[in-house]
């Protein structure tokens, strides 16, 4: 791996896992914005892209490198690591190999990174479960719909009461147990809404009510996330985030960008990450 000699700012590397079992809910977009926010503050951040099929986050960074080269920009540039699929052996052997590869990579990255961000694929896999078990902070972005809530729990269609937990919540529950047994660690699970729309106030309110109920039952922290904004889709080909607009005079800020940036700052504050100082943001505003 490209061993950069970096000065760590926090003594114990913090692992952030971004996951849910659904594609297109905003995992890679959220990951990218969190990574750049942390790097802007001078933290060393390594990315593990576990979505070996789509590699969206790795592509995001590739686009970022190309865009910075083409326009002669100085942009923060995280290292991305990909764990390729293991295709040979019995399932038990494959699991052992995955476990070994994954823990070796984590150990190597811990030595040089304040934060490790792991972007998970939108489906259950052995690697994804290992990642969840290693999380200090787990972030689950949900699109603003009952289809997404269904990942967490079955909800009564008439009363909107939570009836039973679903597969993903059970997986996180098991990850929490495994983590507690391994090193007595805990996982701070955060559910954030993504793509909230001001056009459907009734749905927005219902989703809010159900998540408020669910957070006690499943033990996650429900925090506001990002609104539906075209800008998030436009940034990917350039590899940029809204956080970069500060230092990048080339990109013009619109009112929608300013609002989006506030959403990102609010999320970063709500994550309550070690070393993250809210006051720095307040002073910069
Ligand atoms: N808040 C948002 N507003 C508008 N588009 C969004 C938003 N968040 C994500 N997207 C877009 O939705 C698509 C899926 O997002 P992505 O982050 O790749 O999801 P995942 O990693 O969960 O599959 C991408 O095209 C992305 O640009
Ligand atoms: Mg993705």
First-residue to last-residue Cα separation: 38 Å
**What small molecules are bound in this structure?**
adenosine-5'-diphosphate, magnesium ion
How many structurally independent domains? 1
Secondary structure tally, helices: 10
Q: Are there runs of 5+ residues with pLDDT below 50, and where?
A: none
H/E element order = EHEHEHEHEHEEHEHEHHH
Report the CATH topology name. Answer: Rossmann fold
* CATH homologous superfamily placement: P-loop containing nucleotide triphosphate hydrolases
CATH class: Alpha Beta
Q: In what order do the strands lie side by side in the largest sheet? A: 3-2-4-1-5-8-9
What percent of the residues sit in helical stretches (DSSP H or I)? 40-55%
Rg, Å, rounded: 19 Å
So, CATH architecture? 3-Layer(aba) Sandwich
Note the main sheet: 7 strands, parallel
Ordered list of secondary-structure elements with their pairings:
Layout: E1 14-18, H1 27-40, E2 45-49, H2 56-70, E3 79-82, H3 91-112, E4 115-119, H4 126-134, E5 137-143, H5 146-149, E6 153-155, E7 162-165, H6 167-183, E8 188-196, H7 201-218, E9 221-227, H8 230-235, H9 255-271, H10 278-284
Parallel strand pairs: 1-4, 1-5, 2-3, 2-4, 5-8, 8-9
Antiparallel strand pairs: 6-7
Helix pairs in contact: 3-4, 4-6
This protein binds adenosine-5'-diphosphate and magnesium ion (MG).
Residues 27-28, 51, 54, 56, 119 line the site of magnesium ion.
């Amino acid at each position: 791996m490209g061993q950069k000699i970096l000065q760590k700012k926090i003594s114990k590397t913090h692992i952030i896992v971004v996951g849910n079992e659904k594609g297109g809910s905003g995992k890679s977009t959220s990951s990218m914005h969190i990574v750049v926010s942390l790097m802007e503050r001078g933290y060393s951040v390594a990315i593990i892209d576990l979505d070996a099929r789509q590699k969206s986050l790795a592509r995001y960074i590739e686009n970022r490198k190309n865009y910075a080269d083409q326009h002669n920009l100085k942009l923060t540039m995280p290292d991305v690591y990909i764990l390729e699929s293991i295709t040979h052996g019995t399932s038990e052997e494959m699991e052992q190999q995955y476990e070994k590869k994954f823990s070796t990579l984590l150990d190597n990255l811990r030595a040089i990174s304040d934060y490790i961000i792991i972007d998970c694929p939108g489906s259950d896999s052995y690697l994804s479960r290992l990642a969840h078990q290693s999380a200090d902070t787990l972030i689950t972005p949900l699109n603003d719909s009952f289809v997404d809530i269904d990942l967490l729990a079955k909800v009564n269609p008439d009363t909107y009461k939570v009836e039973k937990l679903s597969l993903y919540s059970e997986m996180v529950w098991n990850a929490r147990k495994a983590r507690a047994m391994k090193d007595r660690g805990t996982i701070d699970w955060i559910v954030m809404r993504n793509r909230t729309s001001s056009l459907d106030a009734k749905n927005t309110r219902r989703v809010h009510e159900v998540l408020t109920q669910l957070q006690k039952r499943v033990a996650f922290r429900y925090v506001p996330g990002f609104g539906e904004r075209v800008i998030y889709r436009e940034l990917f080909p350039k590899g940029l985030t809204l956080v970069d607009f500060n230092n990048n005079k080339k990109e013009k800020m619109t009112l929608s960008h300013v609002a989006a940036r506030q959403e990102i700052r609010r999320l970063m504050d709500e994550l309550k990450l070690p070393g993250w100082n809210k006051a720095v943001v307040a002073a910069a505003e």
